[in-house]
C-alpha cells in the first residue's frame, strides 16, 4: 500500500490486488459495508495519519478506481458531502462518515526502465493487439505504456498482461497523473508508431 498527499484535504492510496488478497478481500467487496473493508479503511487512515499527517475526521468522500492489472486507487477527500451518505458507520470511536463511489478503468499501465523493452514489447504486441492502441509517457526517468483494454477479449487481455509483465512492471499511475506530471511522448497509436520507427 502506497500513498501520497494531493492537497491539504485529499490523498491518493494505491492498493495492489495482493494487498486485498492478504486481507481476504475481493474487489467486489469494496462496495459493501463489511468488517474486513472497514478494517482496511481504518488501517489506511492510520497509515495516512502516520505517513502524511492526514487526519480522517468528519465527512469523507472516497473514490475507488479499479484497474484490471494494477489494483485499485483510492482517493479520499475531506469535506462536506453533497447528499445522503451511501456508506456510514455509527460506532462511537469512528469519527468520520464516508460516501463511496466506484468506477472501473480499462487502462492497463506498465512501466519500463529501458526504451529497448518498449520497442520489443510493441513489436510483439502488434501481432495480436490492434495497432491503434497505446499511449507512451515519460515519467520520473521511466517509460509508461498505457493501453485501453476495454474491447479486448479475455484471451487477448491475458496475453497482453503476460507480455507486458515479462518486460515491464504494472503501475497504478493514472492517465491524469501522467498527463499532469509526466510527458506525453506518443499520444495515440503508440504500438504502431514505435513499431514503424524502430
Automatic annotation (TrEMBL):
**NCBIfam families cross-referenced by the UniProt entry:** PRK02899.1
A Pfam family recorded for this sequence: MecA
Which InterPro entries does the record cross-reference, listed alphabetically? MecA_C_sf (IPR038471), Neg-reg_MecA (IPR008681)
Q: Which family does it belong to?
A: Belongs to the MecA family.
Output this protein's name. Answer: Genetic competence negative regulator
Q: Which Gene3D superfamilies match?
A: 3.30.70.1950
Amino acid at each position: 500500500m502506497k500513498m501520497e498527499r494531493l492537497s491539504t484535504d485529499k490523498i491518493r492510496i494505491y492498493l495492489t490486488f495482493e494487498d486485498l488478497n492478504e486481507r481476504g478481500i475481493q474487489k467486489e467487496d469494496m462496495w459493501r459495508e463489511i468488517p474486513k473493508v472497514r478494517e482496511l479503511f481504518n488501517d489506511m487512515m492510520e497509515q495516512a495519519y502516520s505517513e502524511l499527517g492526514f487526519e480522517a475526521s468528519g465527512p469523507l468522500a472516497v473514490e475507488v478506481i479499479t484497474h484490471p492489472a494494477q489494483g485499485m486507487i483510492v482517493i479520499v477527500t475531506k469535506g462536506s458531502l453533497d447528499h445522503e451518505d451511501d456508506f456510514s458507520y455509527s460506532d462511537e470511536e469512528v469519527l468520520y462518515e464516508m460516501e463511496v463511489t466506484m468506477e472501473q478503468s480499462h487502462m492497463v499501465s506498465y512501466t519500463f526502465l529501458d526504451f529497448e523493452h518498449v520497442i520489443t514489447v510493441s513489436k510483439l504486441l502488434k501481432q495480436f493487439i490492434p495497432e491503434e492502441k497505446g499511449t507512451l509517457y515519460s515519467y520520473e526517468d521511466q517509460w509508461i505504456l498505457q493501453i485501453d483494454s476495454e474491447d479486448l477479449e479475455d484471451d487477448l487481455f491475458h496475453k497482453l498482461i503476460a507480455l507486458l509483465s515479462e518486460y515491464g512492471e504494472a503501475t497504478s499511475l493514472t492517465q491524469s497523473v501522467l498527463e499532469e506530471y509526466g510527458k506525453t511522448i506518443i499520444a495515440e497509436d503508440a504500438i504502431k508508431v514505435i513499431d514503424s520507427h524502430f
